[in-house]
Design goal:
- Strand 8 (about 225-230), helix 9 (about 235-245) and strand 9 (about 255) form a beta-alpha-beta unit.
- Residues about 10-25 have low confidence and may be disordered.
- This protein has helices at about 1-25, 40-60, 80-90, 110-120, 130-135, 150-160, 175-190, 210-225, 235-245, 260-270, 295-310, 315-335, 340-350; strands spanning about 30-35, 70-75, 95-100, 120-125, 140-145, 165-170, 195, 225-230, 255, 275-280, 355, 360, 375-380, 385-390.
- Helix 6 (about 150-160) crosses helix 7.
- About 45% of the residues lie in helices and about 15% in strands.
- By secondary structure, it is of the alpha/beta class.
- It folds into 2 domains: about 30-145 and about 290-375, Rossmann fold (3-Layer(aba) Sandwich); about 150-285 and about 375-390, 3-Layer(aba) Sandwich (Rossmann fold), CATH 3.40.50.
- The chain is globular and about 70 Å long.
- A 5-stranded parallel sheet has the order 2-1-3-4-5, with helices on both faces.
């Protein structure tokens, strides 16, 4: 009887041990997501979240990666630097969290990136990097969107194609907009443009820029400015355009790549007609060349997005798609155990990953995945985004 009891206990321990090992092998790859789910960027991050959920569900329905599912863990930072830092710290202290995506806004990134470096965990950033962040020489931070240098170079090419001579820049009061303005001036003047950066600025929360624009009007008239660069993002973009037109100023308006969102046209209405900017490929994916790999990827993703959410996919949804795709691709290329370190190394060795936005490649010296070739020229015409081309430029 005693031997029988001991035998039963031994079998129980063996089965329990096997179950624990099996459970560990099938435990999910956890991804921390530190987004501004409330606040001025709530609608944009909602789109990002929906895209990431859609892609994770698709992967998990196919059996996951290496037989293990992906799991997204969302935390809202409320567009507050302190909460963003607290969320990042919380994720780093959970050994099961493989990497962290976000924050979205560049003004929240300095502290969270520093935490990622200290705790040695990959931090995938959505909003473009700016000069200050790049100078931090980070090993664990990776950027999804085009950086300020690439966008500025492309916008200078658009300005030259339009034969503008003098451009006035009105930028938002945050680091990314400031460096976009500075690089546009630098690259533009190297090509013969005369660029004026207005001392007037605006905040994300401003709902009327008329006072600032009135102060700029004398310069516009005196210097006979050819084009006005609204160097901003989010709701302020269409507000600037509406205020400018309401003041009777009809000069051409240039925008950043952040003008490629549907709500920009909805908010600005007729004032957005004729606005031109360097856009991401998802903005005009149906107008891409047939041999562009991004076209078929966008078509397939847009079909699934419409079936799930009932609206067209867009630039932000494309970022969500590409983030999950890069994560999946990197995990698959890890040789041996998937850890924070081996995942980072695999991501850094990404070469030519095909996404909705173009081809992503990283290296030890380059953590901005997209190139200038992954931008196109876009014009708002008839309430829609239209791809435009210029001989000798694109």
């Amino acid at each position: 009887m005693r031997k029988s009891a001991l035998g039963f206990i031994s079998i129980f321990i063996f089965v329990l041990s096997f179950s624990l090992v099996y459970s560990a092998e099938k435990s999910p790859y956890k991804i921390g997501v530190n987004f501004e789910l409330t606040g001025p960027w709530a609608e944009i991050t909602k789109t990002l979240r929906n895209a990431m959920v859609l892609e994770v569900e698709r992967i998990n329905q196919r059996g996951g990666i290496n037989g293990k599912p992906l799991e997204l863990i969302f935390e809202d930072n409320g567009f507050e630097a302190g909460r963003a830092a607290a969320n990042m710290t919380k994720f780093t202290k959970d050994p099961e969290v493989l990497l962290v995506v976000g924050p979205f806004e560049d003004t929240l990134q300095a502290t969270t990136r520093a935490i990622a470096e200290r705790e040695k965990i990959t931090n995938i950033i959505v909003c473009p990097s700016n000069r200050v962040l790049r100078e931090m020489k980070q090993r664990w931070g990776f950027n999804i969107a085009h950086n300020d240098i690439i966008v500025s170079e492309k916008l200078v090419e658009l300005s030259l194609a339009r034969k503008y001579k003098k451009v006035l820049v009105f930028h938002a009061a945050h680091p990314l907009a400031q460096t976009l303005a500075e690089y546009y001036k630098r690259f533009g003047e190297e090509k013969g443009l005369k660029v004026f950066i207005s001392p007037e600025t605006h905040k994300h929360t401003d709902i009327d820029m008329t006072p600032q624009l009135i102060k700029m009007k004398p310069l516009i008239e005196k210097e006979k400015i050819d084009a006005f660069y609204a160097c901003t993002s989010g709701p302020p973009g269409p507000i600037v355009c509406k205020n400018l037109r309401a003041l009777g100023m009809k000069l051409p308006i240039l925008g950043t790549h952040a003008f490629g969102f549907g709500f920009i046209i909805a908010l600005g209405g007729e004032a957005m007609e004729g606005v031109e900017f360097p856009g991401a490929k998802p903005v005009v994916y149906d107008q891409l060349d047939e041999n562009d790999p991004a076209k078929s990827i966008n078509i397939e993703f847009d079909k699934r997005w419409r079936e799930r959410y009932g609206t067209p996919s867009d630039q932000i949804a494309g970022y969500g798609h590409d983030i999950i795709g890069l994560i999946e691709d990197s995990i698959k290329r890890v040789k041996g155990k998937v850890t924070r370190g081996t995942f980072r190394d695999a991501l850094e060795n990404t070469k030519g990953f095909k996404g909705t936005h173009g081809l992503y490649s990283f290296s030890p010296t380059e953590h901005d995945g997209l190139s200038k070739k992954d931008l196109v020229f876009v014009r708002i015409e008839g309430g829609k985004f239209k791809r435009i081309r210029f001989p000798g430029f694109e």
